[in-house]
Specification:
Elements: E1 11-14, H1 21-51, H2 58-87, E2 91-93, H3 94-127, H4 132-135, H5 138-164, E3 173-174, H6 181-184, H7 193-226, H8 231-258, H9 268-289, H10 292-307
Amino acid sequence: MEYGNQTLVKEFVLLGLSQKREAQLFLVFLFLLFYSLILPVNILIIVTIWNDPRLGSPMYFFLANLAFLDICYCSVTSPKMLSDFYYNQNTISYSGCMAQLFFLHWLGGSEVFLLLGMAIDRYVAICHPLHYTNIVSRPICSLMVIAFWCLGFIHSIIQVVLIVSLPFCGPNKLDNFFCDITQIIKLACTDTYDLEFFMFINSGLSGLISFTLLIISYLILLVKVRSGGTEGKSKAASTCITHIIIVVIMFGPAIFLYCRPFQESPLDKLVAIFHSTVFPLMNPMIYTLRNKEIKHAMRRMGRNVEVC
């Protein structure tokens, strides 16, 4: 049989997290509660940064974009997941599956590059403070964010184009609650060893290298900052520690999922749900809880709203 670019599978069956109705309804309640508490806070962070002139530095500009990316990233799979659990549906169309793949890796890739940009911002601020405003100006920051989105798009579209060209003619069950490359590839009616190895390099190995570089760079900056001992240095050290926490939360699950594409683990679904729905919304929260300027800005905005 000649497959070419023809796709015989029209939809995929998502086995989800549980087949028990009580467990599905409990998960709907749990995640709706989580989003009702965390999602508005992330929106508040963005509004606060964009409306407070005291938070006009590049660091907060990048943080607002990080919060926006995280909100978008969680919105790729969560609405579909909650709808499936509530209505007890477990299928997704072929086009819907490819759309999930594209947006997950576009937004995820863009966030990786954004975190690299935030590391560059901290390096310039700590190592070249006198030239900071000239090197990392608002126009340059805007161009960097646009470049990050473009690089994330390239990262994602390459994978989607390669997967769309695969023939899917038989098995269509995914042991997950959303579509991702590690499982979709295994359903293709052809030998995918070379493609899996490419995906490992594109998503897994590149993520591991980025994670290692970020951790090393922040540790070096932390050592440099700690040797200063002034109040300003203490604040910079706190910022570096916060960035390290966010990098670990962002990259840890991704490395677990994509650095071993040839193997499966019973923890895959648990790690995937935290990676795609829970942890991203918590990144800006962690940053806010460790940042006095943002908390003070939120209080000022609250007082202004009360006066109005």
